[in-house]
Amino acid sequence: MRSILKSITFYLIFKSNTATAFTGHAIRSITASNEVKLSPSTSTIYKKERCHPSLGNTRLYSNIEEKTTPHETWNHEDVEWVLSPPPDTPMFEKIKLKAAANAIRTELLLKDDPIPPVLCPKGGKAELECFRNGKKIAKFGLTTSRGPSHPLIDETIQEFYGVSASLDGKGIGAIIYMFVEPEYRGKGIGTLALEAMAAIQSVQGSDFTVLVADDNGSGKLIKWYEDCGFQQAPKLQEIFGSPDAKFGITMIRPTSVRSDIFAKCKIKWW
I need a surface site. Which of 37, 67, 112, 165 has the fewest CB within 10 A? Predict the structure, then answer.
């Protein structure tokens, strides 16, 4: 898959002086609740090498409120996923990205080459939108560059999973926000979104997902993330901007998906 991505990445229909539109690097996640700011130390981590741009002062939040009362639970077949530019992307840039995506698809079709299940934009961020019957019902912000690891992250991974870091560490990234419209909460959309984002990250070569979860002390959101495979990672509190759990609990899990994920989870990119 990486060879496919490398062969098609950076293709544009614009012939001169046009910046590269897509990148085949990694996507990572940090989910957070309410309004959490990254600390300067966290910003430093994400400025290095492969993660563009730094998260800087991006405010992280999550508003999904997975309910425990019985509700209809949806599957990926019940919704449509669209990977879009971040909301603050200039209109001309959005048009350029759309044109580039269409050009890539057209070229692959003409060559009878497989179209990758997902392709991410250059620039470091994206928004995964969820639609139901043509209506946008949820949105999830995520980074789209493979962020370098950190000694404390490597130490946590070794402690939790018995996995030693490679020479350049494990790839780490962030989910910037999670939001589901109130009337659609309790249908499992948050769980589906975590699966979809993990699928995107897996294509891009991510290793682990980190998040900061704040449920105002109720414990419900923390429990929900634990049910989704996350573990509390106290050593990471400060580097992810929440010293002494001031803004929530830092959690981590491996970025892993089922082998048939893209047969069920269709993601339209751009």
Answer: 112
